[in-house]
Amino acid sequence: MDQIAPAVVVRDLHVRFGDVEAVSGVDLAAGNGRATALLGRNGAGKSTTMKVLAGVVPPTSGQVTVAGHDAETDAIGVKRVVGYCPDVGGLVPRATPWEHLQLSARLRRMDTWEDRGRDLLERFELGDVAHRVVGGFSHGMSRRLSVVLAALHEPAVLLLDEPFDGVDPIGVDATLEVVADARARGACVLLSTHLRDLALEACGTAIVLRGGNRVAEMQAAELTGEAYRALLD
Predict the structure, then answer these.
(1) What share of the chain is helix, strand, coil (3-state, %, to 5)?
(2) Pfam families per the record (predicted)?
(3) Do the Cβ atoms of 145 and 117 come closer than 8 Å?
């Protein structure tokens, strides 16, 4: 446990969509300078939890604080301090990667961003397609661009939801580098995925969700294949 207040605190989080309870009592805390993996099967509540942390979906009940901002009462404040790669969508099909970067920079009132934007595009091998509309991109290319957009402004809290889905080894390595860079500058990273091995390579701590509940939290190195499968069933 961190000696200072964690960057992200979730207490008894519940999220309901009509009669469906997507998250049913999740608790977690994530610290600055650390990367935490959210693991679990599809439908475990990982993406919904991440959407709440990003200020996109309000909590039905419970307490959620992100870098000092209450997710229920200050969603705009939450959005200012996070960089969010959603599990699907989030891109404008008729816009180019460069136009996405321009829009993000303007919304966040960034004066200097071009050099970092070019560097990130090159890292993710998107430099050659920076001025092509993303509607023709493969799923993996779109995933890589989503990570670039999340990392552009060097957020205090970096939220990556399924960043490895359909991504080639170059994209995987670039994403791992973004996570390492964020940790080095003291940011809090939460990474949601069903790919256990990649999550454990990126993160020091793992939280396992099942059926909308947290069922375990442990050091990543302790989460062997057999132990992980037992938690999922």
Answers:
(1) 40, 25, 35
(2) ABC_tran (PF00005)
(3) no
Q: Please give the structure tokens belonging to residue 13.
A: 């989080």
Q: Across the beta sheet with 157-161, what order do the strands follow?
A: 82-85, 157-161, 188-193, 35-39, 205-210, 213-219
Length of the chain: 233
Strand-pair partners of 206: 37, 218
Query: Mean pLDDT, to the nearest integer, of 43-47?
Result: 89
Domain boundaries, the chain: 8-90+153-232
Q: Report the top-level CATH class of 8-90+153-232.
A: alpha beta
In this prediction the pTM is 0.93
User: Per residue in 69-116, pLDDT tens?
Assistant: 999 999 999 999 999 999 988 899 999 999 999 999 999 999 999 999
Which residue is it, tokens 């490895």? 164
